[in-house]
Amino acid sequence: MEATAxxxxxxxxxxxxxxxxxxxxxxxxxxxxxxADIDEKCIRKxxxxxxxxxxxEAKVDAIIAKLQADNIQVQDAELTILIAADTAEAxxxxxxxxxxxxxxxxxxxxxxxxxxxxxxAVREKPSSEDEARHFLKGYSGGHAATVSSVLVTNxxxxxxxxxxxxxxxxxxxxxxxxxxxxIGEGLVLRVAGGLIIEHPLILxxxxxxxxxxxxxxxxxxxxxEKLLKEAL
Length: 232
Description:
The chain is an alpha/beta fold. It has one domain (10-76, 104-231): Maf protein. Helix content is 39%, strand content 22%. It contains eight helices and seven strands, in the order βαβαααββαββαβαα. The chain has helices spanning 18-26, 48-85, 88-91, 100-103, 129-139, 176-185, 213-216, 221-231, and strands at residues 10-13, 32-33, 107-118, 121-123, 143-154, 160-171, 206-210. Strands 1, 2, 3, 4, 5, 6 and 7 form a seven-stranded mixed sheet that branches. Helix 5 (129-139) runs antiparallel to helix 6 (176-185). GO terms for molecular function: nucleoside triphosphate diphosphatase activity. This is Maf-like protein.
């Protein structure tokens, strides 16, 4: 299955993540990006799986609201033109806002979220360099897991389904100078748990990965493919 300009549907990636863009492109899809821009800290759940699924759901709702707002602006512009033309019959044909999803062009929206689980505690993006340093020192010679959610929504039919993928990661001892170099680059501050196992500096110290690297990077390919097919 490949989404191109000639396909009967389009794909929207609801994420600003460079890694997710790269993975989806590697899967052979063309897509556009619309970000949700939600306050993730306002959503709290006890279990990591529940948290990442709830965040993916919240992102869908925010993006649909954004699409609706854009639709209203277009309709209002059309309405202004119609009023100027004094075409009352055409004005009455303006579709109601709540019909947006029904009238949307065939499109599949992908939203995701991820956390790192370390010693039973959920870790999101580090709030500071000190927290990132603390996270990375904890992984040294230890073990962590990533929990990722993928939610695919069919904007035409309203169908949506979410599932999770978990990957276990085991580390050798990570030298302090490597940790400092990672923090100095700043990339670890923008990812869940400060964890980037594909980074050239950290890769030599990854002992074992039980699962797939694409899942650790935030978009498990097999799960995404499965949900895209189900949504169609």
